[in-house]
Amino acid sequence: MTNASLNRVILGIDPGTNVMGYGSIEIVGRELKLLDVGSDRISSPFEHIDKLQMIYDRVNMLITRLQPTEFAIESPFFGKNVQSMLKLGRAQGVAIAAALNAGLKVVEYSPKKVKKSITGNGNASKEQVAALLKHHVRLPQREINFDASDALAVAICHYLQNDHNLGGRKFKDWKSFANQNQARIRK
Predict the structure, then answer these.
(1) Which of 35, 82, 149, 154 has the greatest number of C-beta atoms within 10 Å?
(2) 40 catalytic per annotation
(3) Does residue 170 register a pLDDT over 90?
(4) What is the pLDDT of residues 14-73, one digit of tens each?
(5) Is the pLDDT of residue 11 over 90?
């Protein structure tokens, strides 16, 4: 797989300072193919700044190896612990900086948006998201953790938000689609 082909490659990242998930898909026509999915544990004895360097380096390595044409990342959720939110935001920032440094356009998706894209429910559990990923791509035989499945869900969400529409036209909701496609709806 090279960028010389006309196929698109999306790298999805679920940022974290202890575990960073990644998932990459290739779009061939309108078919999705899993390229890689996994997670990296960032050892706890390291200082926070060292962990940020490790995240930046790992994202650079993934970009070099997978040659993505698009980069999608999960935006931080809002939690009660301000320090955790700050650290998560920094992890996201260095991952974004690595992508921008490689010349990639970056798109962020909220956890609710990712869940809704994969399951149809923005409040779905991580287990539900992981279970429904197999409807989009052939998952590896080995077990993948939630950080990896979340990152893969981000990549697939990016595809679904930008490409998976009917007749090349996007609709803001099902009602808009139904109103514009009366002849296609069974009564």
Answers:
(1) 154
(2) no
(3) no
(4) 999 899 999 999 999 878 999 999 999 987 777 889 999 999 999 999 999 999 999 999
(5) yes
Q: Which of 1-5, 44-48, 130-134 has the lowest mean pLDDT?
A: 1-5
Show the domains of the chain with their CATH numbers.
8-184 (3.30.420.10)
Under the banding of pLDDT at 50, 70 and 90, the label for residue 141 is confident
Residues 26, 40, 70, 147: which is the catalytic one? 147
The strands making up 106-109's β-sheet, listed across from edge to edge, are: 31-41, 19-28, 8-14, 70-74, 106-109
Phi–psi pair at 41, nearest 5 degrees = -85, 130
Using DSSP's 3-state secondary structure scheme, residue 22 falls into strand
CB 25 within 8 A of CB 8: no
Q: What is the 3 state secondary structure string of 171-184?
A: CCCHHHHHHHCHHH
Of the candidates 31, 74, 127, 150, the residue annotated as catalytic is: 74
Which tokens sit at 111? 């956890």
Catalytic residue (choose from 14, 26, 40, 150):
14
**Residues contacting residue 122 through CB under 8 Å, at least 6 positions apart:** 112, 113, 115, 116
